[in-house]
Amino acid sequence: MAEAQSMPGADSAGEAVAAAVESSVVTRTSAPPSFDVADFPVPNGREEEWRFTPLDRLRGLHDGTATADGSVKVELSAPEAVTTETVGLDDPRVGRAGTPADRVTAQAFSSVEKATVISVPRETVLSEPVRLSLHGEGGVSFGHTVFDIGAFAEVVLVLDHTGDTVRAANVEFLVGDGAKLTVVSVQDWADTAVHVTQHNVLVGRDASVKSIVVTFGGDVVRVHPRVSYAGPGGEAELYGVYFTDEGQHQEHRLLVDHNAPNCRSNVAYKGALQGETARAVWIGDVVIRAQATGTDTYELNRNLVLTDGAQVHSVPNLEIETGEIVGAGHASATGRFEDEQLFYLMARGIPADEARRLVVRGFFAELVQQIGVPDVEERLIAKLEAELAESIG
């Protein structure tokens, strides 16, 4: 956070504190967002937003040397009420939920000529999930997708990423007033894939959004959800589950920008790591602006280290410009198996390996249940079982 500095003409402690708060907000939200990649210098790894990311493994996404020479097979399964359009980047819906916040996502925007807009009409309640599957077929690919959810609609959306590619993309969610959106994004890439994506969510007045990010595969995966509010009364729940294996780098960077009054957010991400070179990063930023009175927010990150050598960086941040809020807090914890839990189970005749599996399942159980899509939950549990069989035996 930026240090407080005196300002010329500031003749009270209150003015100085206000100036320091304003400066800190700019620092936390990083460089001003821009659609133009030229507005972002090539990162060198010393910048706050890149200091944990292995730039040499991004395959040129960060420095402009990656060219769109690959392909992604896209399949959409949706009820009849859902419509799909291919539009120019000048369409007013493109960029409305947010702007690229780093060089890679700006590169993604600059590298596409069209965007895909998937729309759900107002007051439509879908009985089946909308499923968008992207399967990488090699090479480098870029993309921009907008989900336009009409007022008072209710939608469950599943984004499924598989295959092998080097992918940079922007995904926008326009959630209309009073609408309810659940979005599940699954990163189940091949071990050599690279995926950098920014999810921009604009929550309408009295609307609610539940986001669940599930990350297993990929060589380097960096997911950046960013939430803002279009009016008062909005709610956002951001959940995440990740299992970082040997050689993988998985990075989740979140920003919840409370820019409207009487809004709520809750963030809970849990991860497990195994393997000497497993690396995970979780950055949770929450900004409560001066006009966001009545805000209620909390963020949590917990990590379970299963083997020696695995490393995790967990950084929760709160920046508050007004004291007129309901509540704000954060927590972060990283540790190994708790001996008391293992002892309790083993004392009741459960073998040590099975006891460890039960502890890990219990660690993730609460967040897995948040998904609410049975086949996705079953797939996630199966992946957890496979990972645990490898690490525990």
From TrEMBL:
Q: Which Pfam families does this chain map to?
A: SUFBD_core
Chain intervals for the UniProt region annotation (Disordered): 1-42
Q: Which residues form the signal peptide?
A: none
List each copy of the SUF system FeS cluster assembly SufBD core domain by range: 136-363
Q: Where is the composition biased (Low complexity)?
A: 9-31
Family (UniProt): Belongs to the iron-sulfur cluster assembly SufBD family.
Q: Can you name this protein?
A: Fe-S cluster assembly protein SufD
